[in-house]
Amino acid sequence: METSKKPNTRGILDWFDPRGRNVGGWGFIINRLSAIGLTVYLYLHLYMLGKLAQGPEAFDAFIETAKQPAIMFGEMLVIIAGLYHGFNGLRIALNSFGIAVPAQRQLLYGVVGITLIGTVVFGVRMLTTH
């Protein structure tokens, strides 16, 4: 019996294609996107730390920059990505070890819920201390 399989012509773009995916597939796409975002943030963070080594004036300039709305929005994105990626990684690890496999959808909803609650808590603290 011969099966015709569509050749993979898009490569890595298929990793991010949401068509025909179930909830777990969506969770995995978001996990990949959060990993990319956190990797970009790591390089930006290291760049800023290098700037801070230039002295007190550079530190003061950094603090002023960090108070800008666009930077604060970026901080919120980092918190969202960090919380989601971390807790979803635990969900994926449980699945890999065969633990709670039938409850993967509920676990993903829990991951999203924890991420939303953590983001709100962080956002309130960030906006009330700046």
From TrEMBL:
GO terms for molecular function: metal ion binding. SUPFAM superfamilies: Fumarate reductase respiratory complex transmembrane subunits. The chain crosses the membrane at residues 25-49, 70-87, 107-127. Its main location: membrane. Signal peptide: none annotated. One of its GO terms (cellular component) is membrane. Keywords: Heme, Iron, Membrane, Metal-binding, Transmembrane, Transmembrane helix. The keyword Membrane applies. It holds the Pfam family Sdh_cyt. This is Succinate dehydrogenase, cytochrome b556 subunit. It comes from the Bacteria. It is found in: Membrane. The keyword Hydrolase does not apply.
